[in-house]
Write a structure and sequence with these properties.
Elements lengths: L10 E8 L2 E8 L8 E7 L15 H9 L3 E5 L11 H17 L1 H4 L1 E11 L1 H11 L16 E5 L5 H8 L22 E7 L5 H13 L4 E6 L15 H16 L5
Parallel strand pairs: 3-4, 3-5, 5-6, 6-7, 7-8
Antiparallel strand pairs: 1-2, 2-4
Helix pairs in contact: 2-4
Length: about 260
Amino acid sequence: MRTIEFAYPVKEITYKQIDSRNLILYVFEPEVQKDKNSVMLFLNGGSFHKGPQSPLQFQHQAKYFSTLGITAICVDYRNGYDEGFTPLQAICDVKSAVRWVRKHEDHLNIDRNKIVVCGASAGGYLAVSSIMFENIDDDSDLTDPIPNACIIFAAMMDGVDIMRRRCTELLDIAEDISPIHHVKRCLPRTLWINGTADEDYHQNKEFISQMVHAGNDIVFKTYNGMEHGFFNYGRHKNKYFHETKIEIENFLRTLNYLD
């Protein structure tokens, strides 16, 4: 079993069990308690290959937003660490995580109508796909799995390319699970963050353009010359870690998710 050790105190809650595998919400409880707090679910990237990243990727952002009165959660979902993994499982898990949080609003002391999903890279693909593809689901719970807002960091939107590189057994259905092949009005209000030197920048730009044309409300924030993962804690002396968390904070304030 993989051990995940956070640098900060977290509350561990099992939101789903698949055979002997417990999927965990790592909860950073807000330092400022309100009647009902907004909640952010963080989906790490780098999860489709063997030796994947873990929910630790966003722990520093989660800690920061908990100091502002948000219930911040790093989500454990099935990934390349799990035997027989495919991205379909992870899409289902994201839906289950949102459902669990919304269903347990009183337990978490959160506002069920102020749920934000924030995903990077593979996590961004999962965030978008969990909203876009209604037919991908393994949960009989009828609770709404759609978040009220999204934040995406540079996510591949071409499912055909993803499956060709990471999951060839799904190539026959790759176009069916490819967001760029299914542009429609479906996303909640979204902040999309991208470095212009990211290898996926032009694809992201084209996807966003098409999605906005289809009626989606997306703010596209770019960082000139920045690479994939430039926002991660520890990179660039944390310059962009700080800048992007302030960008997210401002976005949340426009939604009235922060006082």
